[in-house]
Structure formats: C-alpha cells, structure tokens
Amino acid sequence: MKQIAVLLSGRGSNFEAIAAAIADGRLNARIAVVISNRPEAPGLETARALGLNAVAIASKGMDREAYDKLLLTELAKYNLDLICLAGYMRLLSAAFIRAYPMRILNIHPSLLPAFPGLDAQHQALAHGVKFTGCTVHFVDQHLDAGPIVLQAVVAVRDDDSTDSLSARILTEEHRTYSEAIGLVLSGRVRVEGRRVIALSPLEEKPK
Length: 207
What we know:
Largest sheet: 7 strands, mixed
Distance between the termini: 11 Å
CATH architecture of the largest domain: 3-Layer(aba) Sandwich
Number of helices: 6
Oligomer: single chain
Number of strands: 9
Number of domains: 2
CATH class of the largest domain: Alpha Beta
C-alpha cells in the first residue's frame, strides 16, 4: 500500500478529510506519519485520537535549512510515496524539495496562478472575481507555483464575506485533495513542463 506523510501546522482539516477518505475506502493509501512544526497543533491530537503516528518537531527559532534537515531525518524513517502539506505554514527549503522531487503536494484556496500566498480568499473578494476555488499542485521552489494536478471552481456571491467564501472553498478542498492524492499515487499522471497530464489506460505506468 502507498505510504504518505502529512505535514500540518494547525487544525489540519484537510488532514482529517484525507484520513476519512482512507477510512471509507475512497483513497487507497496509508498515513505513515503526521508531523507538525507546532507541538500544540490540534491536528496532532486528532492524529493521535485516530491511532496514527503523530510527531512534533518544533520549528520556533530555527532557520529553514536547519529545520528541514531535522524534518528530512524523520521522514527518512518511512518508505514514503508522497508528502502532503495540509495547512503547513512554512516554506520548504530547496534541499527538502530536491529530496522529494514531484512527490510533495499542496492545496491552496484559489485558482492558481491567481492569488498565491496568504489571504487568498480576501484577495479574491478584493479583486472582485466572479469565480475562485482551490488548487492541488506539486511543490517546487517557488511559492504556490508548481504544476497543477487538480482544481475546483467556487462561485463568488455578491454577499460573500471572507468567512463565507472560505467555508465553501474548504468544502471543495476536502473533496479535491483526496482525489488528487489518489490520482498521483495511482501513477496515472505524467508531468510535461508545467502540465500534469492524465494518462489513458494504455499509457498507465505498471503498478
């Protein structure tokens, strides 16, 4: 069975959705470890309650390269097929990304390349767009810029607040992230430049 790690910094609602998708059979994978850079993160308690391996590696006061060395040492204990960022609020170093090329996924609450970075939902409202959504993408060395695996569209209502728009986007995140993880783990995609292309059955990589 394919092995994944989940990195989170807070509540980890996307982690919960991934765990639920595995539990009910929608996603064929095993969460080998859940790691947080914040020992107090609620997502760690959720992981423990689910009987999962939960590890805290505090990042406070550490620079990116030094912290990522600790993180890589922990991750090396597991035979990982994929690393999933679920509200992980740290930028990964180039060395970390080189260690897992095209094996790190992130989900972002906008239709990238629109509105990268923080407060994407507020950015969408401020710009007056009529549609936004969420994007699952491979992580590269640039912020919210790696090849896009899947996107989901959410209409922006005239009476939306940041909170109401965020809630509807989050619903789509929970569905889309597990779907994208399953697609990548199945080997049914190839990456050509910036394009992630779904393979036909005849093109699929052998399991």
